[in-house]
Every structure is written in C-alpha cells, then in structure tokens.
C-alpha cells in the first residue's frame, strides 16, 4: 500500500529473498549508535537501519509511521524533510542476512531475528555525498529519563541550548585529495560560538 511516497505494508517472501541478495554496508554512515554494532545496510535505493532496543526503537518507528502512514497526522507536513518509510523487516537467518551482517561487521553469528527499518536512501544518486548528522532540539533526553541521564546530556554540549542542535558526526569529500574526511561526536562537542560556523563552510 503506497501512502504519499511511504510504503507501510509488509514485504512478501519473494521480496525478502531478493533483499538478502542485494545488500552492502552503508559506507556513508556517520554518528549514531549503529556504526560499531550491526551497522546500516544498503538495499538498492533504500537503507536498512537496525531498530534500536527498547522504547527508543519503538518511538522511532512510531514517528515514521505517523509521518508516512497517517494522512491526518500533523506530522505529515514534515514529509519533505524526512526519508520515505517503507515499513520494517524482521530478517531471519534462513534469508542469509544475519550471516552477511556477521561477516561485514565482525559480529558473532546469531539465529536471533534482526529487525530493521527500511528507509529511503537519500544519497542513492550521489557520487561523492557529504553527510552531516545533527541531533536536533535544545533537549536531547527522553521525558522520563533519570536525573543522571539528564545531567549527562546537558553537559555534553552546553552550546546546544543556544543553537538548538548538536553535530554528531560528518563525512566531507575533499576534492584536492580525492578522499573523504570524517569528524566524530568529539569534534561536534568541541565546537564553540567562535568556530561553529566552520561546520557549514
């Protein structure tokens, strides 16, 4: 079922069989909690993003479903700013994907199904994409977060309270060396009001 560019239906078995044959690691990933875990995968013009554990993963899925699967949602107005959502895939070992993930991300092989969100690959048609990962908002903790978590988030980057976002990571193409340069979360936290503009230079 196609809903304004988002596909909220489940994939057929033939689609899942094809999925396991056309995967590769997403080399343009920056920041996030998955770079050193299961990793983001590429499947044609879509990516497979591992669903985070616990309530955080369910909240993210609920957000995309409200944006793309509910035409009456107030969140539908921001569709132009988020990748298209094509539902979730719970991938089992018989499809070959868990073995693929194990080999490419140096993880032990497991028979536990891996759950992914299938999202539009925004850099699919780009040759040398520069990618910037931002954590938006002046408050980055959950409403029910414990006091110590709130304090940790607050002290990570005090300047976020002013600018409204934090740089989690970025990957920039340098034509002079024909190579990419990576910047991690520690670079983002080191920015101040005097050099913050360099991120967008």
How confident overall, as mean pLDDT? Answer: 79
The N- to C-terminal Cα distance equals 42 Å
Report strand order across the widest sheet: 3-4-5-7-6
Low-pLDDT stretches are 1-5
Shape call: globular
Helix content: 25-40%
Strand content: 15-25%
Based on DSSP secondary structure assignment, what is the total number of beta strands?
10
Count of discrete alpha- or pi-helical segments spanning 4 or more residues:
6
Helix and strand element order:
EEHEEEHEHEEHHEEH
Q: What Rg is obtained from the alpha carbons, in whole angstroms?
A: 18 Å
Main sheet properties: 5 strands, antiparallel
Structural class: alpha+beta
Notable traits:
201 residues; alpha+beta; 5-stranded antiparallel β-sheet; 3-stranded antiparallel β-sheet; 10 strands; 26% helix; disordered N terminus
Write the layout of secondary structure elements.
Elements: E1 2-3, E2 6-7, H1 13-21, E3 24-25, E4 41-43, E5 46-50, H2 54-68, E6 85-91, H3 97-104, E7 114-120, E8 131-136, H4 147-156, H5 160-163, E9 165-174, E10 179-183, H6 185-190
Antiparallel strand pairs: 1-2, 3-4, 4-5, 5-7, 6-7, 8-9, 9-10
Task: Give a written overview of the molecule.
The protein is an alpha+beta fold. The chain has 6 helices and 10 strands. The strands form 3 sheets. Strands 3-4-5-7-6 form a 5-stranded antiparallel beta sheet, sandwiched between helices. Mean pLDDT is 79; it is low at 1-5.
């Amino acid at each position: 079922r196609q809903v304004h560019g988002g596909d909220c239906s489940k994939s057929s078995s033939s689609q899942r069989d094809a999925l396991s044959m056309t995967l590769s690691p997403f080399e343009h990933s920056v920041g996030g909690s998955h770079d050193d875990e299961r990793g983001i995968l590429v499947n044609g013009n879509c990516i497979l993003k591992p669903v985070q554990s616990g309530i955080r993963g369910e909240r993210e899925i609920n957000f995309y479903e409200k944006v793309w699967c509910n035409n009456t949602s107030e969140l539908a107005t921001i569709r132009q700013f988020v990748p298209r959502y094509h539902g979730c895939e719970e991938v089992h070992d018989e499809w070959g994907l868990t073995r693929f993930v194990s080999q490419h991300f140096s993880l032990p092989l497991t028979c536990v199904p891996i759950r992914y969100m299938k999202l539009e690959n925004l850099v699919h048609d780009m040759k040398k994409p520069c990618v910037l990962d931002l954590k938006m908002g002046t408050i980055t903790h959950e409403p029910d977060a414990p006091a110590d978590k709130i304090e940790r988030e607050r002290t990570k980057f005090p300047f976020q309270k002013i600018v409204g976002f934090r740089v989690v990571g970025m990957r920039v193409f340098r034509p002079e060396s024909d190579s990419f340069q990576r910047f991690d979360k520690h670079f983002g936290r080191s920015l101040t009001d005097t050099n913050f503009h360099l991120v967008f230079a």
